[in-house]
């Protein structure tokens, strides 16, 4: 029942080539930077994993976090809703050069596809994207005089998520807006790997405060002082960081 692991390297040690990986975060809010960087460290040491399909809200900023994952050449396909964020130079160049595929999904549809994956709902209908290129080739039906596009669930082999506190069973709380996609991704992934600021003893979290129940979490690693993507980008950092 104890789901804690010793460090971030151990937490991501078995993500294989070709895996689908959901990564939490809305820009820098809730982005699990330490887990992403640990995955890059493993790639630099072993050449694995590669050919990843990453599901994230955006396409990364600067040269850290998700952007560094793409820059390392580890990502084959990105499924996201907002590829044109503050400084998406890495993704933009990779996409223009044909080194990465993009599946563009409206933000609400992205969230609902992930939620559907976690809830076991294979498909649903939404009016969003009807009549646009994003709906091309997708089934359309009419309900009460309005056209709806059929969308498929999204599931993943792994989810990398950042939370605030956990207990050894994997029950989670989040900090403010960093919660965003985290709870949905934990539900939709076969293995949810979560970094938290503090791991409390069993019973240390009021059950009424639990956002993600431990049944949806497989691994927890404590990162007491996580870095923030925006701070790294303001410092014009590039991963691997100079101090490391």
Structural class: alpha/beta
The tally of strands reads 11
How would you spell out the order of helices and strands? HEHEHEHEHEEEEEHEEH
Cα distance spanning the termini: 34 Å
Rounded mean pLDDT is 96
Please bin the fraction of helical residues.
10-25%
Low-confidence stretches: none
Would you spell out the secondary-structure blueprint of this structure?
Blueprint lengths: L7 H4 L8 E4 L9 H14 L5 E4 L10 H6 L3 E6 L8 H8 L4 E4 L2 H13 L3 E4 L13 E4 L2 E7 L3 E11 L5 E2 L8 H7 E11 L19 E4 L6 H6 L10
Parallel strand pairs: 1-2, 1-8, 2-3, 3-4, 8-10, 10-11
Antiparallel strand pairs: 5-7, 6-7, 8-9
Notes on the protein architecture:
This protein is an alpha/beta fold. Helix content is 24%, strand content 25%. It is built from seven helices and eleven strands. It has helices spanning 8-11, 33-46, 66-71, 89-96, 107-119, 182-188, 229-234; strands spanning 20-23, 52-55, 75-80, 101-104, 123-126, 140-143, 146-152, 156-166, 172-173, 189-199, 219-222. The strands form two sheets. Strands 1, 2, 3, 4, 8, 9, 10 and 11 form an eight-stranded mixed beta sheet that branches. The chain has a three-stranded antiparallel beta sheet with strand order 5-7-6. Strand 8 and strand 9 (172-173) form a beta hairpin. The longest helix is centred in the first third of the chain and has 14 residues, at 33-46. The mean pLDDT is 96.
